[in-house]
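Hey all, sorry for the wall of text incoming. These are the two entities for the joint prediction.
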Amino acid sequence: MDKRGFFFTLDAVMALMIVGIGLFLVLSAYFFVPSVSRTEDISQDALTFLSTTTIENLNDPYAGIGGTLWDEGRITQPENTLLQQIGEFKARGDEATASLFITALLENIVPENYGLQVEVDGSSIYPLQAEQAEASQAGTDVLISKETIVYGISNTTTYDLWGPSVVRVKVWHG
Amino acid sequence: MFFTLIALTIVSILMVVASRSATVVQRSDSSALRIQAMDNFLSDVENSYLPLAARASAYKAIASSTLYMNATGQFLSDPGSDLGGVMLNGTLGSASIMANNTLQNFSARIEEFASDIYGINLQMAVHSGSMAQTSPWRMDVAVNVSYVARADVGNWTREKRIATSIPVEGFLDPQYLVRTGGAYQHRIAQAGIPATRWNISNLDAFVSSGNYTRFEGSDAPSFLERFKASPAASECCGIESTINPASVSPGNQQESYADYQFWASSVECANLYDISGGGFSHSFFKLDFSHAFKYNVSAYATALSCTP
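and here's what came out:
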């Protein structure tokens, strides 16, 4: 009688443990999903800012009208969106300026503990060394990638159409 | 063992149900996102890419046609339609005059892009293109397109009329090119002198610069009409410039030097006035009385003594 009672008790305890562990595993799938909303917001904000702000509406000593790039003649179309300008730099083969342009625009928008990568047609423009971003991305649990297409004319004198190109903005929690 | 078996069964069922519901949610979410992405892409193509492609193609079509006219010495019979044809497939009559910048080229480019990036089988058809003017300094461009887009989440079929415009400033005036065999190249540039501010010194600078102006109610042709052998007056969009006597040979001709009158030789000698004095530096420059009045230089106008 004592033996049967012992096995019943052991059976019940094991059953309870199995149910407990099972519930924990099922519920953890719902409750321990990495939080994506903040990263999603940052990536969407970055993309919206780049695709809706035009050069003429940008107040920046490096990238805006009257800024360094404007004075050097590397930006000539005030009605370009920032994304179009990035695409235009890439179409001209001037990735270095595109990278500096993005740095000037986004360094104060993306929080310190988040990473950012901008690719045009699969080439990393920011940072210019893709390995730098990939190393940082390897250790993250949440990475949001958003993409859009971009195209434009290289200048209003020749009306040369460049693009379409794919711009991909990746944001991750570093 | 009885409780353990029951517990294992319950947990197994729970896990299967949980994983199935998660998969279903994920799948429906990704389908909605893909449909949204396709729709956004096609809207972008319609509302942004095609108008930009139409502008780029129109610009190249005008530039190519002007150079072709210069080379052949021939004017166009129906510029609005002829230039539209160049935009569409790069041909003017039987001659191929433009490559890589036709609407068909730009359509093929976006079709390839849609396939490579979004996996969409996009088939665009550009049915017609034309140009017209409703304002003096801009060229209206109209293109009729239709497309079918097939993707794994659905099909899209649309027809669209793209209407956009480009500035005419910067283009070479075909009248000058063709009539002088390319010797007198004259680009459209707006003078920006209001009708009430004309005087002898402004006219002098105007002739030197070769800019264009517009007088309401004048008989001047539009930029588009200037592609014709006999340009007609344009009520909405007539623009005119002046011939610099130093740029034509001979410099002294019994013509009005208002450009469209000069090329058409449309003013009789009896109606011509020599403009001189007041610091005006262009010898042999003549106008009809109407233009002398419009430029506010009638005080410097002397009736020409005509030789029979």
